[in-house]
Amino acid sequence: MSMPAFSVVAPPAVSMTTSAPIPPVTRRTSGVASSMLAQEISQIDGVGQVNVGGGALPAVRVELNPTVLNKYGISLEQVRTVLNQANANRPKGALGDERTSWEIHTNDQLLKAVSYVPLIVAVNQGAVVRVADLGTVSDSVQDVRAAGLVNGHRAVSMVVTIFWLIGITNA
To answer: With 90 as the cut, is the pLDDT of residue 133 above it?
Structure first.
């Protein structure tokens, strides 16, 4: 049985750009471009690769004040542990009988900054210390230094590489 041969060094065939005038729309645009559009385009026959650039996926950014951490005697590791535990994505329990068992799964991922603000990091001299007491929490993007512009507006671009058929068959 023979298989078609494709060029793996083909230049990009299509370049697309999506843009939005305000940053929150750009975060959503980047998420849609990478999680929906790129996946759909990559399933088209002949498409070998889809690269998304110029944007960044949504994320919650926690910026801690080292002076305040020192004041409360809290380490970065303590804060990291609290944030990690608040985003646990693992089985929560199980149900079963002699023949069958089911795991109970939930997704505890916190998707918005407002959900991180009340998390308790420590108790200091009887007072609760929350994430909000240690710095700022904001809805942001994974990479704050990534940016793409088209005609002066923030944009997300997709470059589609098509693997061109270079021969009828390969023995």
So the answer is: yes
